[in-house]
Specification:
With 251 residues, the protein is of the alpha/beta class. It contains nine helices and seven strands. The longest helix is centred in the middle third of the chain and has 29 residues. The mean pLDDT is 93.
Length: 251
């Protein structure tokens, strides 16, 4: 069960090698979390991540999970919930893709969409049902400011995150009053392996800063978290710019 501040004792991470997810897990372990499941494709990186978290004192398990195989999600994730209550699910897997390449290769573009949206819908619904059955828990969904308004530079990725964001908001409304809390996290540019080599955007942030924002959001039972917070105002302005002006911006 969560403590009086809304922080979890048990955590399931979907996307077990995500730098943002692991920064969040480390922060929660330092507070109260004692049991962690890292779900992802089997790999040395997944095992290394598990070992690092064990070194912090947590009981850590790895789970073979593939976002692109929705038919397996119910069985795979069901086994985790069968082990006991899960206080928090962190949905953090995603694929940035390569916009220029993906425009030329529709199959690659579809892979981005299937990972970021279709896989998340499947896993999110499976976890939401399990959280509702146990009567409590939080589902934290890593969205992106890229989903607020599609930009020429990354509209394939942005459109997939827009779908995910809308899905998560709707799911949160559907679960309101059931004891299950859904929180959407919208980071801006985060300095990770995934963004290495890309031009850094204004208000860039770090996995650790996102983790701090997630903790604060859990304590406040927030429904939406922006990282950094100033992006709420920036994106509100960009969202309402006339399209002709928006397409000429150097973003």
């Amino acid at each position: 069960m969560k403590d009086a501040f809304g922080l979890p004792q048990s955590l399931l991470v979907l996307g077990g090698t995500s730098e943002i997810a692991l920064a969040t897990a480390r922060r929660l372990i330092a507070r109260r979390t004692r049991t962690v499941w890292l779900a992802g494709r089997p790999s040395p990186a997944l095992e290394e991540a598990a070992g690092q978290l064990r070194g912090l004192g947590a009981d850590v398990h790895t789970v073979a999970f593939d976002a692109l195989d929705p038919t397996s999600h119910e069985a795979v994730l069901g086994k985790v919930f069968a082990e006991g209550d899960v206080d928090m699910v962190l949905l953090a897997f995603g694929l940035l893709g390569d916009q220029a390449r993906d425009e030329r290769d529709p199959e690659a573009a579809v892979r981005v969409a299937q990972t970021n949206y279709t896989g998340a819908v499947s896993a999110g619904l499976v976890c939401a049902r399990s959280l509702q059955s146990q009567g409590h828990g939080s589902l934290v969904v890593m969205s992106s400011v890229a989903g607020e308004r599609a930009r020429r530079a990354n509209f394939i990725y942005g459109s997939s995150k827009a779908g995910l964001d809308a899905f998560a908001q709707g799911l949160g409304d559907a679960l309101y009053g059931t004891g299950v809390h859904v929180m959407v996290v919208r980071p801006g540019f985060v300095r990770t392996r995934m963004t290495a080599g890309l031009p850094e955007a204004p208000l860039a942030t770090t996995p650790e800063a996102v983790a701090t924002a997630v903790e604060l959001g859990l304590r406040r039972r927030s429904e939406t978290v922006w990282v950094p917070g100033a992006l709420r105002v920036v994106m509100a302005a960009l969202r309402h710019l006339p399209r002709g002006v928006f397409r000429r911006l150097p973003i």
